[in-house]
């Protein structure tokens, strides 16, 4: 049974803001489900020191939270979600059969150096079976305390054949496809250079040509960037597949934006590192 850490607070009920430093084990939980919680508790992931820091524990069938007035066990993982605290956007704790949410964050962009806009909230998901397989094959002898932040483990996560999804939820309401293309050329273009050298124009173009001018991505749109088996990067908008590109370099470059050394959101990366390490040693 895996225990994931999200420093978080309950968005409901507001009484939760009086909490601090609780630790929960999924085994040691009794069931006291309040009406609001039963409807599907939303958990606000936060490193904001004003918010309580708790430990979140769940298995694939049960989510458990210990609160001062009782504890909560949710019936199944489909009702679990984690809220990105700065935007309030909510991410399901798992997608598909085995991809688990390991970190949430916010992508900002500076406009002409004048103001920062919140562009999208994101969630980082990794396939727990693939992660465990990698650990079994290569890191079985490494103590749990050393796997967190281990550079070669992290490089392997970005380069091995591990199914991962980055889910984006659009916050900025005036995104044009043209600005998406140009932001992408800058952010992903830099990473392609970093990992693959200079001649990547064709690869970049093969991906940006998937973004058709007629697409509309208003606020609240969901875009999934999924690394499928065989290093195929596939894009879905609102669950509709819009195209795929097979390239290990492109997959690595995209993941590096979120979990590499200079990520869009440092807190998301820290949560990812904590959670992927606990996933690695979950039996
Ligand atoms: O010129 O209106 C503007 C600001 C546009 C900022 C665009 C940032 C795009 C970041 C990539 C979004 C991917 C969905
Ligand atoms: O934030 O700079 C960044 C990188 C964004 C990567 C995601 C771009 C994929 C967007 C597809 C939009 C299709 C209209």
From TrEMBL:
InterPro entries, alphabetized: Chalcone_isomerase, Chalcone_isomerase_3-sand, Chalcone_isomerase_bundle_sf, Chalcone_isomerase_sf, FAP1
Domain of life: Eukaryota
Pfam families assigned to the protein according to its UniProt record, in alphabetical order: Chalcone_2
Entry-linked SUPFAM superfamilies: Chalcone isomerase
Chalcone isomerase domain location: 100-272
Protein family (similarity comment): Belongs to the chalcone isomerase family.
Protein name as catalogued: Fatty-acid-binding protein 1
Gene: LOC104699561
């Amino acid at each position: 049974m895996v225990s994931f850490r999200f420093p978080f607070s309950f968005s409901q009920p507001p009484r939760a803001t009086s909490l601090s430093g609780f630790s929960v084990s999924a085994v040691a939980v009794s069931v006291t489900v309040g009406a609001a919680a039963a409807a599907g508790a939303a958990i606000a992931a936060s490193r904001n020191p004003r918010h309580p820091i708790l430990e979140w524990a769940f298995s694939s069938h049960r989510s458990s939270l210990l609160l001062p007035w009782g504890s909560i066990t949710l019936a199944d993982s489909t009702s679990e979600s984690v809220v990105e605290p700065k935007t309030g956007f909510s991410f399901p704790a798992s997608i598909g059969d085995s991809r688990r949410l390991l970190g949430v964050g916010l992508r900002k962009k500076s406009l002409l150096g004048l103001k920062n806009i919140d562009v999208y909230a994101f969630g980082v998901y990794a396939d727990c079976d693939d992660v465990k397989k990698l650990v079994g094959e290569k890191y079985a002898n490494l103590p749990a305390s050393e796997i967190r932040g281990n550079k070669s483990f992290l490089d392997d996560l970005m380069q091995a054949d591990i199914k991962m999804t980055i889910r984006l939820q659009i916050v900025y309401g005036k995104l044009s496809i043209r600005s998406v293309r140009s932001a992408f050329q800058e952010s992903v273009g830099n990473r392609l250079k970093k990992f693959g050298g200079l001649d990547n124009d064709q690869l970049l173009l093969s991906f940006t040509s998937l973004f058709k001018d007629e697409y509309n991505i208003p606020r609240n749109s969901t875009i999934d960037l999924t690394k499928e088996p065989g290093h195929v990067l596939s894009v879905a908008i609102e669950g509709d597949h819009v195209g795929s590109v097979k390239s290990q370099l492109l997959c690595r470059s995209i993941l590096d934006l979120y979990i590499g050394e200079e990520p869009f959101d440092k807190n998301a990366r820290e949560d990812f590192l904590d959670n992927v390490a606990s996933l690695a040693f979950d039996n």
